[in-house]
């Protein structure tokens, strides 16, 4: 049983039970972003969360151990074609140097960690059309000198 | 006088005057992200803000008209090498499909606009090491049917 | 049942019933371009149109829910090889900067949306050989300042 | 004197005289798209139009012969990064197979020529926000059998 | 039944019957290049030629309708590795700019069509070793002005 | 003095003297394709032809030795963007496997040489529009067994 | 039965019979390099050698006709990753321009044929560690003038 | 003074003095391949050979220290376009797996070093046309186990 | 039975027996890095170690001969996407030129062998968070002169 | 004054003074790897080290402020061609998945930081030829759950 198998099981169970990612996340006490990411095989669950996931969706027991294995993260398209994901890529292209400059101004020479990191998505009502809000937070890591 | 020329003038004036992006942004009444982005030639300033920029930094008058021209946005590296920018690219690779799934769950089939869009960066104090917070907000655009 | 499965079912049903895309589109009250695009899995149908599609072509009921799922848009060739599609790519290469300059002249710094967007194709009789006419219309989106 | 030199002269003369592409095109009796495209060195002008262009903008006489030379069309980015041009590329990716299918349905096995071709851009007022309209027309060319 | 299926059937029938492409082409009254190209799924046959092909090789009737469908032309290698095909690619690299210059000199700004096009291959006896002769002919298309 | 320098001199001399490639080729007793190719630095001239070229165009004497140096053939675009050259590339993609199959049928396992090779271009009058004719001839080389 | 099938049969028969490439080559009276290359489907055997191969390894009769078909040579990695093959690629990168310069010095403007070509590999004993010796020989082909 | 500067000086001095690479190599007591490779900046000369080179060609003294610096080896084209170098690349593609298999058969799991390596080129007279002979020899390196 | 088959068997046996790579390595008397690398099919085991591996994990006898075959090393991503492996790639990009300069300073013009090479990984306790230590050692190879 | 300017000044001063990287590093009290990396513009120096560097090499005062600016790290070759750097890239390809597996076994799901990171190079005497030793140490970062 591979991570791909478990992803397929989760998608199928979710569809049959009429669940949402928000709902699944709530039932295991974690955020929807992290929960979906683990379901896609892009992150690993600690044992208790994997157990909760298996119970919430009625998956076979072996799925829990698969959900807690360290994943190998692979994406096939260096430049993503899906418009919804491409817009994020475009933001990195357009605003990447700006984000870098302001991190350097506020912290010094370093980066925002993509490992010690979290991400939230919210729908923000707006009179001219609702907005997507994405909040990222990552630990600042400064370059070593030795 | 090209956008590149004006970028060079701004960087030089900023260094000599010992200014920060936060400070420059404040002096023209805009956000630091947007201000830096215009200074890099990645966005266009409305005429009054271009005027304010030219005054704040003591640039030649022609620079104002250049700052308000529509830019052609070019980045040379499909996969950025700078570690600070690469981490953002990696986040798109790892969390892109998750962001897409949650936008679909919350809104329907569509995207977060990267044009009707804004972005803020904050330093968040944290006992185990301060964190970088990035907040993006873009208008939701749903696919047309016709 | 995946989007690929439904595409195959539609192509097969269309062939057996001797239908055209124009005909299928008319039977569900939508345009041929949008109808074909949904059939290829590149767009999502609202529930009522998906129902109409399933009825018009005698597809199994599950196909309706698949037709209304948000698609992930993927194309494998950064530069398309098929001559009919390549000519469109070439037009973007040759006339892209011109289209950009005229949008800026007519509207300001912004883009034509590819989401709030529609497209029509017509055969135009011409004495020296009939012509293909492609009409695109997309909402203008101006860049935000913040 | 190269095509690049003439492009630079035209851009500079246009800026100093406060002209628009619409205005320049009208003064030589051609469309703005074609006029801009020749100015960018992507198309060649017949001798009389090149003369008119040189007069309208006060360019040196040699520029006329350069404007009428056959250009070599080069674009450096297989996938364009500028958001305004990328949206056109995305449209080819998403709707390319659909356009191909409908050309085949309406005409037979063949293509829309990108040489015997013209293109127009209009601003269409709309209560929810004005729209960009792009109209393309190209001769249908059917594949030979021999 | 796909174009790939029909290609496989043709190759197998040709081998078992000990036929040549010259022979098959003659039996349907077309050229070997065009016949092979249709057999590979790179061109579409008019209905009568598809019928003749099916008869000549004893293929199932459905193959005729597949042979007359408009193909999607795909090649996977931007730079071909097979030495026999690479030499053609190299000729385009080395002599492409020359062919372009001479077309411009003889015709004006335009191209040789690859659609309204035909191609023949002959073996030319030569005392120092026989030669391959390739003759291409395509309609000249001049660029539009509008 | 490099090959690029000599190419520039030739283009300039040709323009000032109002010559054509046909005319230059005739004056040195060679074909226009080969002559243009040497002028572009893609082939080397034997000493006597280089002398004739230098005389015909009034180039400095050193140019003759440069014209007879062995060139390094470089093209920057794996897939050419210029439409006139791209059509040739497309022909290799679409008809390459067919040309290969027919060379194998007529000769055996081998290739058409691109070195012991010549190429001619003619304008062929045609009532529905004149045609470009390209004739290539290369020595057949069969694979060695050892 | 494809070339891939025959390659697999040969590898399996070789393993079971405990043969070496040297031994197989000797039994059909050819060199090990050429024999291995045909076994991999990268070269074609004349009928008698294909018969000898089939006998030597106890392959089914159809394999002989497959071994003598003209192959399509494909390699998937433009830059090979296997270290043993990469070293050869590196040699082309580092010494390619040198080999070219010396061929030009010794022969004139032309190439070493990779078709009328042979290659041998030997183990050369050496006190500081044995060495691999690779000897290539290909016919010189000079560029045509016409 | 860079390696590029010294390469240019060497090429110019060689041309003016009418020397050959064979001759230069002989005058410093090394092989032509290695000598040319150092002249191109692809290898470093020991101090005495660099001195001999400087004397033989009348270069400024500083050139000697540049010739003995460790070079950074860069080639810009992953797939070389020059036909003479491409043929070598093609040989790696076609015969690479064969060379690997025979090294494994003769030595075990390992490679031919491209560092402890030498290469010679000879013209071999042949009645059907002279041949280029390339001899490479590199130390066998077996993989470590630890 | 291929290297991929044996890798799958090893992963499955390891999971069922609850073993670690450290443990497996110890049981065959080799390092964990080398042992894992052979298990992944990236290195070949000498016969006795392959036998020990087969015994330690209860694999079928044929697996031993497969483990000792010379592997073809393939990686599909020129730039790895997995964050754990990407960081190593980034280190090569950032510190590669530095490592090269210091090897040249300490040894002369040459390289660190990746064949006569070993690698160890250790966990180093640290009060601010434990550290990963990677130690590589490879034989220095100096460039030949000939 | 850019980072490139300062790199050039440092290389020139180092050559004229006959210094080594070891020596320069010692004089500013840092490691040779880090010192060289800052000199190449790949890392930033704290103010005191930049001052020490400027003094040690007699650079102009402005160089100190440049040395302490946050760099943008760029490398142009996704796959490095220089053999000394390529070997490091090859090690990542061959041993990357192994290093990842052992980090997961020793620590859990996470990475070795390339920011909170140091690197040392030593020459290790060995009777069969001296060896290059590279030691890397980076902080382990475990993936967040939220």
TrEMBL record, chains A, B, C, D, E, F, G, H, I, J:
The active site is at residues 87, 90, 113. The keyword Lyase applies. Its EC number is 4.2.1.104. Keywords: Lyase. It catalyses: cyanate + hydrogencarbonate + 3 H(+) = NH4(+) + 2 CO2. InterPro entries: Cyanase, Cyanate_lyase_C, Cyanate_lyase_C_sf, CYNS_N, Lambda_DNA-bd_dom_sf. One of its GO terms (molecular function) is cyanate hydratase activity. Residues 74-146 form the Cyanate lyase C-terminal domain. It is an enzyme of class 4 (lyase). Pfam families: Cyanate_lyase, CYNS_N. Belongs to the cyanase family. Catalyzes the reaction of cyanate with bicarbonate to produce ammonia and carbon dioxide. This is Cyanate hydratase. It comes from Pseudooceanicola spongiae. The lineage of its organism: Bacteria, Pseudomonadati, Pseudomonadota, Alphaproteobacteria, Rhodobacterales.
């Amino acid at each position: 049983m591979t991570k791909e198998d478990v992803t397929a099981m989760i998608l199928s169970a979710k569809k049959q039970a009429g669940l949402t990612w928000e709902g699944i996340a709530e039932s295991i006490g974690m955020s929807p972003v992290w929960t979906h990411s683990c379901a896609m095989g892009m992150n690993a669950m600690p044992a208790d969360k994997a157990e909760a996931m298996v119970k919430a969706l009625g998956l076979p027991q072996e799925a829990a151990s698969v959900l807690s294995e360290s994943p190998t993260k692979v994406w096939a398209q260096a430049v993503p074609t899906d418009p919804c994901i491409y817009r994020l890529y475009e933001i990195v292209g357009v605003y990447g140097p700006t984000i870098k400059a302001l991190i350097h101004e506020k912290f010094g020479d370093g980066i925002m960690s993509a490992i010690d990191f979290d991400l939230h998505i919210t729908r923000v009502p707006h009179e001219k059309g609702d907005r997507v809000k994405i909040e990222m937070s990552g630990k600042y890591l400064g370059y070593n000198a030795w």
